[in-house]
Amino acid sequence: MRMPEPDGAVIARKRAIVETLRTLVPGPGGVIFDEDELRAYETDGLTAYRQIPMIVVLPSSTAEVSAVLRYCHDEGIKIVPRGAGTGLSGGALPLADGITLGLSKLNRILEVDYPNRCVVTQPGVTNLGITRAVEAEGFYYAPDPSSQIACSIGGNIAENSGGVHCLKYGLTTNNVLGVEFVLMDGTVVRFGGKHLDAEGYDLLGVVTGSEGLLGIVTEVTVRILRKPATARALLLGFPSSEQAGDCVAEIIAAGIIPGGMEMMDKPAIHATEAFVHAGYPLDVEALLIVELDGPEAEVEHLIERVDAIARQQGATYHRASAGEAEREAFWSGRKNAFPAVGRISPDYLCMDGTIPRNRLPEVLARMREMSERYGLRVANVFHAGDGNLHPLILYDANKPDELARTEAFGAEILKLCVEVGGVLTGEHGVGVEKRDLMGAMFDETDLKQQQRLKCAFDPDQLLNPGKVFPQLHRCAELGRLHVHHGKLPFPDLPRF
């Protein structure tokens, strides 16, 4: 994985940079520069890639974030933003000549506003922490990634994270109302707020999912929802993954939008049941977890309809949760699927591509063929309702060729997602993992246009360089006017 060449002149100034940062972030543990202590920050959830950062800085306020960015802007020092480090695309992979700016100390909920149904929080608060703060009053925060106990809301915004209940309630972008945002030159701006829609350009939409390339979030306003009156989950087992995939399409086609609809294949089912003991059937090839929520009468009616659809699609196992404890047990298996798979393989690579729901059976069949061709096992755990796949490719990093084969296998899966009308990522982001595959989805004109947007926020390319774009263009280069055969395009337009 190639990254930008380190700037030796910046590295040579490390001691002076540390001393300046200590004046900007004076609290205990605010600046980390000892090599052994820096190792804790050398990777994120994509552990195949590691790099010890030059320096780590842990500010405690927006003012300190602003001061650090202003200093780095003036001195030409690169910045890598970092939330909780749970990201799976290498978005927080450090740079040898850069400062990793961690936001873990900005970890307070600032306001709970029930009349406006929102929470104002700092970015280091965990996803689950927001729900914990409001659940006593019957509210919750809807997006729920599997890592919600650890992942931070600031990182969720950077990657536009999803979760098992995002089919009905939307991704992070659908649940964030406003942010406080620090630009690379230290300027502090606000996009959105407690109101439903922001005026003017949708800059909140631009920064959500921007992967730390445009600025740093230091405050977040999120929407909270009333807990539904009733929620029940169905376990539906099928003789084949194709039949389970067909059932997903039929449920949505029937006009039913479950609160969540997840799918696991046999390897994932067995690993998870051995780890969590959620009560999953072991004699099926694929398992759907379908949750229906709303008024009790509606839920009971929808359970009957979904069960009937599943039987028509060949389901051989049917079980509805009898109470809240059992519903939570069903979900505990799904949310612990990633660590469960870690028990059956020394290493695994978690992919993240999204496809149209009706292509699910075809894609699963082709992934099985790839698995045989590459000689690598794959366990499938994914958000079936919105077509967001999470194939877990199992490998052993101690075997010299397995990581390379795993990456080739993963790249082929992602190219297949694009081929069938999907996209490279659903919620994990591009980072470094999918950076060199961007050309499979976007042409050169598309990529240059995206980089022009980055240039508007970060003209010196100091924020998280080496991520997302396979080839980085200088901003001046992107701004040049193309003259063809000596003629300007659109000669009637005024030039400034």
UniProtKB/TrEMBL annotation:
The cofactors it requires, by name, are: FAD
GO MF annotations, alphabetized: FAD binding; oxidoreductase activity
Q: Which Pfam families match?
A: FAD-oxidase_C, FAD_binding_4
Which parts of the sequence belong to the FAD-binding PCMH-type domain? 49-227
UniProt KW keywords: FAD, Flavoprotein, Oxidoreductase
Q: Which InterPro entries match?
A: FAD-bd_oxidored_4_C (IPR004113), FAD-bd_PCMH (IPR016166), FAD-bd_PCMH-like_sf (IPR036318), FAD-bd_PCMH_sub2 (IPR016169), FAD-linked_Oxase-like_C (IPR016164), FAD-linked_OxidoTrans_Type4 (IPR051914), Oxid_FAD_bind_N (IPR006094), Vanillyl_alc_oxidase_C-sub2 (IPR016171)
By its UniProt entry, which PANTHER family does this protein fall under? GLYCOLATE OXIDASE SUBUNIT GLCD
> Know the name of this protein?
Glycolate oxidase
Organism of origin: Tistlia consotensis USBA 355
